[in-house]
Design a protein that fits this description.
With 168 residues, the chain is α+β, with helices and mostly antiparallel strands. The chain is built from 4 helices and 9 strands. It has a single domain, classed as Gcn5-related N-acetyltransferase (GNAT) (Aminopeptidase, 3-Layer(aba) Sandwich), CATH 3.40.630.
Amino acid sequence: MLIRDEIAGDAAAISAVVENAFAGTVYSDGTEPAIVAGLRDAGAMTLSLVADVDGEVAGHIAFSPVTVAGAAGDWLGLGPLAVDPARQRQGIGTALVEAGLVRLRTRGHGGCVVFGDPAYYRRFGFAPARSMTLKGAPAGYFMILPFGTAIPAGEVRFHDAFGVASGD
């Protein structure tokens, strides 16, 4: 498995992986492929990684800027994260998250936020936010991972491509 940056020509394969990964899940409203496309079209994916297995896209992760208390800064949001259902539980998602977080730290970002399963994301160091909030997020499902000591305070908003997931 090779974790690499998204390249031209990956968009259709990424869309298929994202659609298949979220199909039929109780926590999805089916908008995840549109979120990825919207982020890409807006030039809002700060980091887009794929897991390449034998020349095929087996997984994808996106990181995009968030605002905190209405201000842009150096924090990013993780998501969507998707792994082809036939290849889940093989460490692909973990490899994507870990590689992404290493790159964000190396590039000097302040931290990362995620709205997702606490049991999954805690293993990477994410913890419930105290000073940052996401409108409508159930307790414990909005988490932060600071890369330094500075943690902004206020309501977090994801890019408009997230629609309802942005807290609207």
